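Recap from last week: sequence in, structure out.
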Amino acid sequence: MALAAALIVPAVVAATSPLLAWRDPIYIAASFAGVVALGLLLIQPLLAGGYLPNLPARSGRRLHAWVGAGLTAVVVAHVAGLWLTSPPDVIDALLFQSPTPFSAWGVVAMWAVFAAALLAVFRRRLKPMIWRRFHVTVAMVIVVGSVVHAMQVEGTMGTVSKAALCMLVLAAAVKIMLDQRFRAGLPRMAGRAGR
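Predicted C-alpha cells:
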C-alpha cells in the first residue's frame, strides 16, 4: 500500500500539473516517461533485495531483470521525446554543453542505465563477484544521477512528492547496498570465528 502511494502520488501530481497546459503530447509523454523511470528506480532495489512481501526472492530477481529492461526502454522514450520536441537542447545535454546543470546529471544517469543493461546482457560471461561489483557501482551512479537530475528540474512532479520519492529511492538503494555488504562479510567473519 505504501509503495503504491509512493508511486501513484507523484504521477497524479504530474498529471494535474499546470506546467503541462498547452504542451505538445510528445513532451507530455516524455515528461511522464521520466516520472515512470524514477518510480521504477524505487522498485528495482526492493525486488533485488527481496524486500517485497509475498514475493519469493527468486521471482523478485527475475522480475528485477524485466523491470531493468523496462527502465531502459522508458529512459529511451524520455530522451527520444525530448529530442523530438527540442533537438538542440538534447544535443547540448549529450555534449555536456547545456547551461542547465540538471542536464549533465540526467545524461550521466542515462549512460549508466545503458551500462547496466549491457552488463545484464553479458552477465553469464563475467565472474559473479566481478559482475556484482560493477552492477552495484553502476546502479548507484544511476540512482544518484537520477535523483539529482529530478530534484534540480522544476517540472511537473511537484516539490514535495518529488522529494519524497527521491528520498525513498536513495533509502532503498543504500539499504540493499549495505545489506549486500553485510551478507558478503558473513562468510569471512564465520571463517575467522572458526579458527
